[in-house]
Amino acid sequence: MLKTSRSRRLAGDILTYVVLTALTTFCLGPILWMFLTSLKTEADIVTSHMQYIPRTITFQNYVAIWTQSNFPVLIANSLVVTTITVVICVLTGTLAAYAFARLPFKGRDKIMLGYLLVRMFPAVMVIIPLYVMMRTVGLVDSRFGLALAYTSFLLPLFAWMLKGFFDAAPKELESAARIDGSTRLGAMVRIVLPLARNGLVASSVFIAIAAWNEFIFALMLTTGQGSRTWPVGLQLMVGEFQLPWGVLAAGGILSILPVVVLFAIVQRAMVQGLTAGAIKG
Amino acid sequence: MQITKREFLAATAALALAGSIRPANAATAINYWHHFTSQSEMAGLLKIIELFGKAHPGVTVTQESIPNSEYMAKVSSAVVAGGRPDTGMVIAERFADLTAMGALTDITKRVNAWKGRANLPENRWTGMSQDGAVYAVPAYAFVDWMYYRKDYFEEAGLAGPPKTLDEFVTACRKLTNPAKGRYAFGMRGGAGAFKYVIDMIESFGSPIVKNGQAAIDKAAAVEAVSFYSSLFLKEKVVPPSTPNDSYRQIMEGFRTGQTAMIWHHTGSLIEISAALKAGEQFATAPMPAGPKAHIARVAYAGNGIMKDDNVDAAWDWISFWGETDAAIALLEATGYFPASTAALEDRRIKSNPVYQAASKTLEFGRLPNSFVGAAGWSENVVNPAFQSVLTGQLTPVQAVDRMIEGLEAALR
Amino acid sequence: MRRDHMKSVLPRGPITLLGNLSETRYWVYLLLFPSLILLLLVVAYPTLYGFVISVREMRLTRPGLNGWVGMKHYVAMMSDRVFWISLKNTAIWVTAAIAIEVTLGFVAAVALNRNLPGTKLFGVLILLPYFLPNVVAGHMWALLLDPRLGVINDLLVRIGILSTYKAWFADPATALAATILVEAWHGFPFFALLFLAGLKGIPEDLYKAAAVDGAGPVRQFRLITVPMLKTVIAAAVILRVISLVNSPDLLLVLTGGGPGNATQVLSLYAFQTAYREFNFGYAGALSVVMFILLMLFATIYIRLTHVTKE
Questions:
Q1: Which of B 37-96 lie inside 8 A of C, CB atoms?
Q2: φ, ψ of residue B382 in degrees (nearest 5)
Q3: Do B268 and B342 sit in the same domain of this protein?
Q4: Core-most of A133, B39, C21, C305, by most CB within 10 Å?
Q5: Cβ–Cβ under 8 Å, residues B256 and A46
Q6: Could you tell me if B358 and B384 lie in one domain?
Q7: Nearest-CA distance from C259 to chain B in Å?
Q8: Domain carrying residue B33
């Protein structure tokens, strides 16, 4: 019995590694190729004989994107917009998600559907009236205005996802706290939020990435350098008479880096959250 | 919509008022929307801004780049929702739509009083005018021509570039060798394919639009589409990837030696010269003539005024582009063919054999079709219909029917 | 810290007040108020605007044509061939992409959740595609699958699966499938991330208890993992469906809807109608139809999955 369960476990471990390796190859292969492309000269990219390893390694593409695109400003703008978006979503969305998950009230289904409806109207048609509104209140070409626009479609997403995580957090602990005399607010802050911490972090990461990568709203609601974000700056590299693969690849690599760093930090927090939850549980 | 327009008008009026009470000696700031992208284009633009700053110290220009594919989206939303720039780039294909949506200001009076007008003959203005009113100052031109691999032609024993479509097909057969992965002609079947489909239809004798009415001659158009698609379907002298090949792919095909000929315009000369040696590996020639007409487009591009707040400064800026200094600065940086005849006399054009084909084309070339809705019809109807012929989902007759049907809907 | 504050006099007021308030029936409205007001402020007018222009004539390039046209655009849509093709393609595109993404995402999450040595690194690597902007992902795959410069073609030829480079996006038989592959690659980490977070939220005790009761891994999976994850899965799927139906960026970069409408979807069609033909009225009607279809889908979906229930 023991032996079979151990061998079964071993088989499971091997299978896990096989699956992970396969998936990683699928995910990483194209990015690795992009990285190689970013180090190649144009002659090694546009060639009739596939050049796997660059014949000469060049950092020219990175230099080009740095100088041509006003990179530091674009990245700073993206960071500011993303941060504002996440802060607004977390502050307001967490409350809403908690209400959806824990408080039965009349018309909850309808209000939840209402949140979703907000996301359903295609961006193509929302842009123009939104621009008119933003103009009236002077938020065109501002990072705050852009963040507000992002909030309009990321907040429902955030609330919905987080509601799922709240649902998954066991209710027994909360009930116990309530019996001990804690108010609903107290139980929410001290018990439920720590329990759903992973979900909170995952949902935040998710909307942060969505805001970081958004293109159409950023394009239409901003014009000046002062508020233009990184994806729009990248698309500017793509002209009618050229598509500089190397530069674009370098831009892609550069756009992953900050997100990877952020995620590495967040993952540590996620792990700590796990252990903290385990102690309490 | 009603509210939008009213708001927009009120805002414009308020801004105009603010503009008129500004002291005359303060520097006026204007902005300029463009879709220049490459390093060479940006270098040319910055040089022109620098020259302009010296000539007009009272005006400062802020350039704002818009991705080319989203340029019209951005302009149209500015027209509806407000936020227009002072000045903007106007290319021939987009002129009709821009004027129709009221994006450009009528500058006829200023043009007529302008001394620089002498350097820009009447045909330069045709593409920038509508119903006798001028809306933009031409600055440079994209002249259609053919690039061909001189070395491949010699190898195949061909004396020179084909002058007619018949010669073109004969040459194609000699130049194709699928075993070596070599095809005669880099045909554009993806985005932008409509350009040459329309050229073919006119080469075979059918007009597109006459007096604002759809005027496609079905028999001629079917003949044209059959001929052009046969290069892919029957002759197989173009790469198998043709149905998705757009500018980038045909250019890369030519640069990597996969194809021996491509059709494009003077705008890509710098890119090709960087990859292949002019005069040895590649040369240029006028487009081959069709059975009924010799079609090659000369598309002038220029700049227009989009907002009336700083109209004097805006005029200074857009007319500066038509002057020789600016034209030469752009030519030096990008190789773009100047619109001004004074600039055409420059030795960089006169003494460069590559440009001879373009100079020759200027004599017979015609403007692109310009009617309201042309861009939408070309991209959303002609392109998919032609692609469907290439992929065998439609016959040329069915495709032409769709084109006519779509054209009538667009003009309605 | 918090406890100290609560003992001091001043902050005690508001927090106790809030705590007391949280016991009343107004609490739920108070929780919903900030987000609701924010959404209404930003979204109400634009949505209304979309509905209004869908029953008006609004073609920027024909300023003369203006005014109410009632259901004209909707009637025209019924006989618009491209609309029906787009509808069909949208259904295929979304269904196939979601199916692949959920499967891959689930497999990845379960594997990562086994917490074997090195899984943390794998976790970051698998999420990388999702970090790329759509625009970059699109251009990059265009290069990978390029009929001349594409490394995937080269590899397939070397292995012997293909005899020559294939133009994946030029053949109507493969174009849609190729775009689905790209979307799946770009989108499945979304599910992996969410599912993983969901799995980590399931208390170990439940599994231990189940093991004591003699339940094997398969039973544990069926009785604990799936039910606990149900709302996360259900919510993730509907959110993804909505964003897939509504975002044209990837297809805009990869194929532009071609060849010959083979990859045309509703969102792209609406985008092209508005910003290439400047026919905002018809584009508005297309958007309204998409909205209604999505709403029907969401209503039925919510009924079936009970995702809004506790």
A1: 69-70, 72-73, 76, 79-80, 96
A2: -60, -45
A3: no
A4: A133
A5: yes
A6: no
A7: 5
A8: 2-142+299-364
C56 and B CB contact within 8 Å:
yes
| pLDDT higher than 90, residue C12 | no
* Domain count of the fold of chain B: 2
Instruction: Report the alpha-carbon distance of residue B174 to residue B157 in Å, rounded.
Output: 9
pLDDT at C107 over 80: yes
Alpha-carbon distance of C51 to C74, in angstroms, equals 12
The nearest alpha carbon in chain C to B71 belongs to: C275
Residue B248: its chain A contacts at CB < 8 A? 243
Is residue B244 less than 8 Å (CB to CB) from chain A?
Answer: no
Query: A25 — contact with chain C (CB < 8 Å)?
Result: no
Fold classified for C79-305: MetI-like fold (1.10.3720)
Residues of A (111-170) whose Cβ lies below 8 Å from C: 111-113, 115-126, 128-130, 133, 148-149, 151-152, 155-157, 159-161, 163-165, 167-170
Among B5, B19, B7, residue whose Cα is nearest residue B102: B5
Between A52 and B318, residue with greater pLDDT: B318
Do B162 and B221 fall within a single domain?
yes
pLDDT tens per residue across span B106-161 = 999 999 999 989 889 888 898 899 988 999 999 999 999 999 999 999 999 998 99
Asked if B17 and B33 sit in the same domain, the reply is yes
- DSSP symbol at A40: S
Q: For B58, how many CA atoms within 13 A lie in the half-sphere containing its CB?
A: 10
Q: What is the mean pLDDT of chain B?
A: 89
Integer Cα distance of B119 and B121 in angstroms: 6
| Cβ contact, residue pair C124, A184, below 8 Å | no
C147 has pLDDT over 70: yes
The domain segmentation of chain A, as residue ranges, is 2-45, 69-236
Residues B392 and B259 in one domain: yes
Structure tokens at A117: 């409806």
Q: Residue C49: closest CA among chain B residues belongs to which residue? A: B1
Interface test with A, best of C23, C31, C229, C307 (most A CBs within 10 A): C31
Q: Which residues pair with B182 in a beta bridge?
A: B177
Three-class secondary structure of residue B145 per DSSP? strand
Min Cα distance A178 → chain B (Å) is 53
Interface of B with C in 1-20 (CB under 8 A): 1
Q: Are residues B176 and B122 in the same domain?
A: no
Among A220, A218, A256, smallest CA distance to A85 is for: A218
Per DSSP bridges, beta strands B183-185 and B282-285 are unpaired
For residue B354, pLDDT over 80 is answered with yes
Which value does ipTM take for this structure? 0.84
Query: Residues B335, B336, B339, B343: what is their CA dihedral angle, to the nearest 10 degrees?
Result: -20
Contact criterion met (CB < 8 Å) for C272 and B394: no
Determine whether the interchain pair C104/A23 forms a contact, defined as Cβ–Cβ distance below 8 Å. yes
CA–CA separation, B41 and C249 (whole Å):
26
The verdict on B218 and B250 lying in the same domain is yes
**CB of B241 less than 8 A from some CB of C:** yes
Domain harbouring B189, CATH code: 3.40.190.10
CATH architecture of A69-236: Orthogonal Bundle (1.10)
Q: Would you say the C-alpha torsion B231, B237, B240, B242 has a positive or negative sign?
A: negative
Band (A268; pLDDT cuts 50, 70, 90): low
Structure tokens at A159: 């609330």
Q: What local confidence, expressed as pLDDT, does residue B9 receive? A: 45
What lies within 8 Å, CB to CB, of A115 at 6+ separation is A96, A155, A156, A159, A160, C35, C39
Domain end (from B364, B380, B398): B364
* Judgement on whether residues B289 and B327 belong to the same structural domain of the protein: no
Q: Domain ranges for chain C, please list them.
A: 79-305
pLDDT at B50 over 50: yes
Q: How many CB atoms lie within 10 A of CB B51?
A: 16
For residues C190-194, average pLDDT: 87
